[in-house]
Amino acid sequence: MKGAGLTVGGFYAHFQSKEALIAETLPEVLRKTRKELFEGLDELSGTDFLVAIADRYLSTRHRDGVLAGCALPAILSEVVRAGDAPRKALSDEVERFISETSSRFEGESTSVARARALSVLAVCVGGLMLARAVSNPELSAEILSSCRSLVASARFE
Questions:
Q1: What is the Cα–Cα distance from 144 to 127, expressed in whole angstroms?
Q2: Where are the domains positioned within the chain?
Q3: Tens of pLDDT along 115-135?
Q4: Of 53, 56, 61, whose CA–CA distance to 154 is shortest?
Q5: In angstroms, rounded to a whole number, what is the distance separating the alpha carbons of residues 129 and 131?
């Protein structure tokens, strides 16, 4: 707030509630993350695309860059307790991720492509959340590595 020249109270006055703040800001934050995540991967498809996403998302740089990284690991527990508007905003952004990711799987059924996209999203967000939360640096690195390996070796039928 200080960097933006605002007080906390002045900032929150723009929103009717914490729920409204989350619902209005979450889509923009997640669009920015998705853009950064997909940037430069236009030529990749299929598993190569998923591995590239996982490599970026489950990196030590992303793990350590909490303030500049994806908001999902930090905000999910708030969204769970929030009302319908934040959950709807999150659902819409998850659907956008699924749509953009599953479109990289030409020739596969819609259900398999969606399963791939959902699985990668869940492994990446959960893996990053867990890697950030543990105190042991070696364990944290192992979590990131294991999740990346899982994405690379996953089979869908």
A1: 6
A2: 17-153
A3: 999 999 999 999 999 999 999
A4: 53
A5: 6
**Is the model's pLDDT at 154 over the cut of 90?**
no
Which tokens in the block code for residue 121? 């999203």
Under 8 Å between Cβ of 21 and 71:
no
Q: Return the structure tokens found at 2.
A: 């200080």
Give the pLDDT of residue 157: 62
Q: Is residue 76 within 8 Å of 26, Cβ to Cβ?
A: no
Position 94 confidence tier, pLDDT thresholds 50, 70, 90: very high
CATH classification of 17-153 is 1.10.357.10, yes or no?
A: yes
Contact 58, 124 (CB under 8 A): yes
State the distance between the two ends of the chain, measured CA to CA, in whole angstroms: 48
Give the phi and the psi of residue 87 in degrees, each rounded to 5.
-65, -35
